[in-house]
Design a protein that fits this description.
The two termini are 40 Å apart. This protein has 352 residues and is α/β, with parallel strands linked by helices. A four-stranded parallel sheet has the order 2-1-3-4, sandwiched between helices. Strands 6-5-7-8 form a four-stranded parallel sheet, sandwiched between helices. The chain contains twelve helices and eight strands.
């Protein structure tokens, strides 16, 4: 099992600026008890399951927790490494690389929104160094209340509890940031060079439609997110299309060679479309035989990329009759991505 301690930078105690990187979270192990503990914390968040408290309690305790942890634990066991959780390992490696980029004038900490290492512990370590200001970077390229605002709320809650006296700012929504786009594109280029893929599918984590409709005007027209000149609303689905546009332009993909879809549905209510597992049969019927999948809603490979796409979606494609399938890595600890985060942090200090 991996260590759940974060890896702070070796900054001096006199450093004035801190950086807190926050990813979603991971169970401590693929054991059912640890997966159940993780799912309970994750799905108890009212921003994740947006329903009344009694309805959320019943869904979680009567439907999800009695059955899902065992199935999810089996999935985790397929991707777990000797060192531990892929998401945690990639996030730790990224934090270490960013710390190296920034040097001793900054303090870098890593936390998870759910489970270990906790946001509270990371803030306590930052407080102990005497930093004056902290930039928080939720490691989610596209804005979503369920993740971006959930991280912000927990940071503010833990900061009040600890009585921190440093200024806190948030850097979010880097869906089309050149550094992030180039870091992800660099993971895709070798695969494009290796084979002439019939199709590239950009598969993003899905959200319930109800969480998208809170943004005025969203989902009121079939093509609202596809419009090239649409304003950069804090709309998750719109920003997924923005990421796809940026990546396809950077990679010089023709419009007929790529499309976008959404994966990881949880509840029975309508989720944003098109659904990834529904798109695959359509692509095969169109004569596509080789498929490259990219998951740019994630900055670190995790259960949804490695197991849901890398294993299950691959099996679905091959069972349909597809001949070849590949999954591009997430940005992970890419030097380009680490450099982009370091630049955001330096810019924050200059503006402070």
């Amino acid at each position: 099992m991996d260590s759940l301690e974060s890896s702070p930078s070796k900054a001096s105690r006199g450093a004035h600026t801190g950086l807190l990187l926050v990813n979603l979270g991971t169970p401590a192990s693929p054991a059912v008890r640890d997966v159940r503990r993780y799912l309970r914390e994750f799905l108890s968040d009212p921003r994740v399951l947006t329903m009344s408290a009694p309805a959320r309690w019943m869904l979680l305790n009567l439907v999800i927790l009695p059955f899902r942890p065992r199935k999810t634990a089996e999935a985790y066991s397929k991707i777990w490494t000797n060192e531990g959780s892929p998401l945690l390992l990639h996030s730790q490696a990224l934090a270490e690389r960013v710390a190296e980029e920034l040097g001793d004038d900054f303090v870098v900490e890593l936390a998870m929104r759910y489970q270990q290492p906790t946001i509270g512990d990371a803030l306590a370590r930052l407080k102990a160094t005497g930093v004056e200001r902290v930039l928080v970077v939720p490691l989610f390229p596209q804005f979503a209340d369920a993740v971006t605002n959930s991280v912000a709320a927990r940071v503010e809650e833990e900061s009040r509890r600890l009585g921190t006296d440093f200024d806190i700012a948030f850097h979010g929504d880097f869906f089309d940031d050149p550094g992030f786009i180039e870091a992800q594109a660099a993971k895709i280029r070798p695969l494009l060079a290796d084979q002439d893929w019939d199709h590239v599918l950009f598969s993003y984590h899905g959200l319930p439609e109800s969480q998208i409709r809170v943004t005025p005007g969203c989902l009121e027209a079939d093509d609202c997110c596809e419009r090239q000149g649409s304003p950069p609303l804090r709309c998750y689905r719109s920003q997924c299309f923005g990421t796809t546009r940026a990546l396809s332009q950077t990679l010089d993909l023709s419009p007929s060679k790529f499309s976008l879809s959404f994966q990881s549905r949880l509840t029975r209510e309508p989720w944003i479309r098109p659904y990834t597992d529904f798109v695959l049969p359509e692509l095969f019927e169109q004569g596509k035989k080789s498929l490259l999948v990219v998951c740019p809603a994630f900055t670190a490979d995790n259960l949804e990329t490695l197991e849901e796409v890398g294993i299950r979606l691959r099996e679905q494609w091959l069972e349909l009759g597809g001949e070849s399938f590949a999954l591009a890595e997430c940005a992970n600890d890419s030097p380009v991505f680490a450099g982009a985060i370091a630049n955001w942090t330096r810019d924050y200090r200059r503006r402070a």
